[in-house]
TrEMBL record:
This is Subtilisin family serine protease. The keyword Hydrolase applies. Pfam families: Peptidase_S8. SUPFAM superfamilies: Subtilisin-like. Residues 113-302 form the Peptidase S8/S53 domain. It comes from the Bacteria. Keywords: Hydrolase, Protease, Serine protease, Signal. Belongs to the peptidase S8 family.
Length: 321
């Protein structure tokens, strides 16, 4: 319980909700990477032994660890666009599959916020930490020097992915801004272009407001909106809930730095769901974002959350082999 409290305290040191051109750094190289056609091979079935706990339970209907995590495909033919901070692409969990793309922050030289870059990307497609073991990862930097962003940066990042994504593709972010029509419009442009968008439901603000319908782009029905749990409990201090939430996922151990280090469970539940979306797209590359969203909801496990939100569905992410 003490460890859990320490982790929660660390997570609460900063919020996920922010107040209120030219060719960005890295855009040219990332556009070239994005232009590379994805391989048609979705990857092979496999099993990981001794995975992080949140991965371990993804293929279990009762959330009980089995010591393994199994999959049918690896997402080799899918591109994943991670909107957050820079990714430490040399981390061993990526195996050379991650690149940093455009930087919409002005490229300031400041410490990375691994939760929103390396950690998020590792939950999507890290060999040790992620769901889609061979997905191609492109970082789109919309955060710098803080664990928040601005609506303007978010719009730029979403529009860049809309213009450059190689499909099948999924985009993911675990940062939100206050309800913003420009961000919503950019998110809808992305989704209507055929890219599946997964977004975190956001963190309660300083006033204690936990309504997930008040943040963008999570409030959109077309977005796959993810709430966070600690095991089978919703931690109200670190997740917003509401009728726009599609499902919940346990937050997981993440990769940090450029070597092989990892960090205790953190705010990357949306990354796990994005990885699950990539696996669906690997097998069904012509699916629309709406079909991916419905499939994730349909295969989720009902009734596992012990303190369900009265407005959000009692559904936990499930990835079956």
């Amino acid at each position: 319980m003490r460890i859990r409290a320490q982790i929660l305290a660390a997570l609460l040191c900063g919020g996920l909700v922010a107040a209120g051109t030219g060719v960005p750094a890295g855009a040219r190289g990332a556009a070239a990477e994005a232009a590379r056609p994805a391989a048609s091979d979705p990857g092979s079935p496999g099993t990981q032994t001794d995975p992080p706990q949140a991965l371990d339970v993804l293929d279990q209907r009762d959330l009980q660890p089995s010591g393994t995590f199994s999959w049918r495909t690896t997402g080799r033919n899918v591109h994943a666009y991670v909107l957050g901070d820079r990714i430490s692409t040399t981390h061993t969990t990526f195996g050379g599959r991650a690149v940093n793309g455009p930087d919409f922050t002005g490229n300031p030289q400041c410490p990375l916020f691994d939760n929103w870059g390396t950690g998020l990307a590792s939950a999507v497609g890290g060999a040790r930490h992620g769901v889609a073991k061979e997905v191609r990862i492109i970082g789109v930097r919309v955060m710098a020097c803080a664990n928040t962003t601005t609506p303007e940066r978010l719009v730029q990042g979403l529009d860049w992915v809309t213009a450059n994504a190689v499909k099948p593709a999924v985009a993911v972010l675990n940062v939100a801004v206050g309800a913003d029509s420009a961000v919503d419009a950019a998110a809808l442009r992305l989704i209507r272009s055929g890219v599946t968008l997964v977004a975190d439901s956001g963190m309660a603000d300083s006033s204690g407001d936990r309504d997930s319908t008040k943040v963008s782009p999570a409030r959109l029905s077309d977005t796959i909106t993810v709430g966070r749990t600690w095991g089978d409990l919703i931690e109200s201090r670190i997740t917003r809930t509401g009728p726009n939430v599609d499902l919940f996922a346990w937050f997981s151990v993440m990769a940090i730095g450029g070597g092989s280090d990892e960090y205790a469970p953190t705010l990357n539940s949306a990354g796990l769901v994005a990885g699950a979306a990539a696996l669906l797209l690997a097998e069904q590359p012509a699916w629309t974002p709406a079909q991916v969203q419905q499939a994730l909801v349909n295969q989720a496990t009902p009734g596992l959350i012990r303190n369900p939100s009265p407005e959000a569905p009692n559904l936990m992410l499930h990835v079956g082999p």
